[in-house]
Amino acid sequence: MEVLTEVRERDTETPIIMITAYGSVEVAVKALKAGASYYFSKPWDNEKLLIEVDQMIARTRLEHETSSSSAR
Predict the structure, then answer these.
(1) CA 41/CA 63 separation, integer angstroms
(2) Would you call 17 helix, strand, or coil by DSSP?
(3) CA 28 vs CA 6, 10, 14, 36, 69: distances in Å
(4) What are phi and psi of 20, to 5 degrees?
(5) Where are the alpha helices (DSSP H) in the chain?
(6) Virtual CA dihedral for 16, 18, 24, 25, nearest 10 degrees?
(7) Digits of tens for pLDDT over the chain (72 positions)?
C-alpha cells in the first residue's frame, strides 16, 4: 500500500494492478480508493489478469489518441 500511495503521488495516470497473497475485501477497497486500477489476490486467474492488462493498454492508447486529436 505504501508503494501504491507513493506511485500515485508521482503519477496519477499509469494503471496499477495490485496483486497480494493477503487479500480481503477491505484491503481491495482500500487499494482501489488509493488509486489501484485493479486488484487480484492469490491465487489469481492468469486469463483474467491478461484480459485486464489488455483492457488497460487499450484504454491508455485510446486516451492518448483522444488527447492528441484534441490538441490539434
Answers:
(1) 28
(2) strand
(3) 17, 21, 18, 9, 35
(4) -140, 155
(5) 2-10, 25-33, 46-71
(6) 20
(7) 899 999 999 998 889 999 988 778 898 999 999 999 999 988 889 999 999 999 999 998 998 888 877 766
Cβ atoms of residues 39 and 32 within 8 Å: yes
| Rounded Cα gap, residues 52 and 6, in angstroms | 23
What is the C-alpha separation between 42 and 35, in angstroms, rounded?
Answer: 20
End-to-end CA distance of the chain: 39
Which residue is it, cell 481491495? 28
The three cell numbers locating residue 30: 482500500
Residue with cell 492508447: 61
Residue indicated by cell numbers 492468469: 46
